[in-house]
Amino acid sequence: MSKTYTIPKTQKAAVVQKTGGQVQVQDIPVTSAEQLAPGECLVKLSHTGVCHTDLHAALGDWPVKPKSPLIGGHEGIGEIVAIGKGTAPCPVKIGQRVGIKWIAYSCLDCEQCRTGHEQNCLNVKLSGYTVDGTFSQYVVSYVHSVTPIPENLDSAAAASLLCAGVTVYRALKYSETNPGDWVVLPGAGGGLGHLAVQYAKYMGRRVIAIDGGEEKRKLCETLGADAWIDFEKCKDIVAEIKRITGGQGAHAAVVTTASSSGYTQAIDYLRQNGKLMAVGLPADAKLEASIFFTVFKGISILGSYVGNRQDAIEAIDIASTGAVKVHYKLLKLDDIEKVYDDMGKGKIAGRVVLAME
Ligand SMILES: [Zn+2]
Ligand SMILES: [Zn+2]
């Protein structure tokens, strides 16, 4: 017997009425079970993470423009309360707990999808960007794209894995490194960084954590970083990485920072055939790499963009073993205006998770 749910007519949602405008919590209609198309499901959200991308979506400062009006959010966890009539086959069921990630939908039939690059799908729908996202009590999603959440993972603790976790996990997975290899993580004490440290350690990599301040140093060391560099104190980061790695440089760097200098520097501290995994999405920064040394050292510069369904399942699965824990601050949906405000001022260091009620 599957559970039955009473779906209300209205719900609370955080809406950006006009791109560049304020986010406001207001009452809006809930899509009814009858309105769902085949392949769609209605998810009653309990928690959602807040990501820097949500700020870009509200401001509309990326080269790809968001929908308007917009409900942001792409790190949602909730229960499926309805599935569109005529959905067959259906990999999920009513009552199941699922996650909603940045890639809300991929067609599974285009060349990118067929080759496993669902995040680059030509018909992609993006949560909280091209379709309404998870800053609402109910959201319409897609049965083939939602991520099942294992029972032993707490909803609030799982939320941020769906974007930050998947993103850094995939970058590490495709970094062509082996156990014991050195991976540099600039911004290691931040929202993406602290998850990257834990995934990298789970994969048996040696981690050089770069960030600033005592609090971040303690966090990175607690999470298992093998070496720590304080960029506020270190005069020559390249030399320090060379010293730590026995003069050769690191095997890979996963660069999540918004500034271009983090990328430029990586070319210098990577060893021959090193991999630079570019993960951050700054609105207009350019990559300035020495072409000579990129060629001479055989450096690969690879863009790694969130992840596909399998990457999400793997990232969640690893976290469910207890190996990866999100450090987050739990607030309420009603706090979102303040969260956006603080994010705009750069006052939010780790991840923020909102409880829906
Ligand atoms: Zn995100
Ligand atoms: Zn596709």
Could you please describe the fold and organization of this structure?
The chain is α/β, with parallel strands linked by helices and 357 residues long. It folds into two domains: 10-162 and 307-355, Medium-chain alcohol dehydrogenases, catalytic domain (Quinone Oxidoreductase, Chain A, domain 1, Alpha-Beta Complex); 165-303, NAD(P)-binding Rossmann-like Domain (Rossmann fold, 3-Layer(aba) Sandwich). Helices cover 25% and strands 27% of the residues. It is built from eleven helices and 18 strands. The strands form four sheets. Strands 3, 5, 6, 9, 10, 17 and 18 form a seven-stranded mixed β-sheet that branches. Strands 13-12-11-14-15-16 form a six-stranded parallel β-sheet, with helices on both faces. Strands 2-1-4 form a three-stranded antiparallel β-sheet. α7 (237-244) packs parallel to α8 (261-269). The relative contact order is 0.15. Residues 51, 53, 74, 102, 163 line the site of one zinc ion. Its cofactor is Zn(2+). One of its GO terms (molecular function) is alcohol dehydrogenase (NAD+) activity. Its EC number is 1.1.1.1. Residues 21-354 form the Enoyl reductase (ER) domain. This is alcohol dehydrogenase.
